[in-house]
Amino acid sequence: MYPVLITSPRLGLREFTPDDVDALTDIYGDPRVVEHMSFEPRDRDQVETTISNVTAAARVEPRTEYSLAAVLPSGHLAAFARLAIDTQHPGQSSGQLGFALRADLWGQGLGSEVVRLLLRLGFDELGLYRLWGARGPDNQPSARVMTKLGMIEEGRIRGHINVGGRWRDSVVHSILEPEWHRA
Ligand SMILES: CC(C)(COP(=O)(O)OP(=O)(O)OC[C@H]1O[C@@H](n2cnc3c(N)ncnc32)[C@H](O)[C@@H]1OP(=O)(O)O)[C@@H](O)C(=O)NCCC(=O)NCCS
């Protein structure tokens, strides 16, 4: 599916373009945003590489990477939103979600709106059966967002990622398509 364009009352999901580098640096360069994520703050050059990778991946067929810009009605970038279809078991139908909202927008329900848009993309547009997310054990805002959208906490992956030379566990949340459509 290309290009993606899905909207909700306060946000729209669209493809990234090279013009998003500065706005994404405001998100990925912010230590508060990446505190619980799998990487350290990125500078402008690193974000330029990220955008070039995600725009290239968006054109691969069949598409498995949906790294998308969540934008406000003003057009300003609010969040990085990602759905990556799992490829370890071809023919299976699951995808992992990732999301990072600009810090000055936290606490207004926008993070939940981003994840709801990703669930719509995964279930309603791509026809996936299982969507899951992995958060840092101390990431309470992420836990709250996923739980309130029906993503059940299902377990802990020990030593899942290494950030800054330290191994960290992840807590996995998931939701299945029938649960989404019953919600
Ligand atoms: C996680 C994130 C997207 C949440 O965005 P947000 O817009 O602030 O979340 P919302 O306003 O939709 O709030 C969702 C819930 O989380 C709760 N919440 C928000 N911040 C919280 C905090 N610091 N501690 C506990 N709960 C918190 C809210 O009260 C709300 O719960 P409620 O609906 O029951 O009141 C945002 O904090 C973020 O981008 N963090 C950095 C990146 C990140 O950690 N991404 C997730 C990787 S797994």
From TrEMBL:
It holds the Pfam family Acetyltransf_3. Residues 11-178 form the N-acetyltransferase domain. It comes from the Bacteria. InterPro entries: Acyl_CoA_acyltransferase (IPR016181), GNAT_dom (IPR000182), N-acetyltransferase (IPR051531). This is GNAT family protein. The lineage of its organism: Bacteria, Bacillati, Actinomycetota, Actinomycetes, Streptosporangiales.
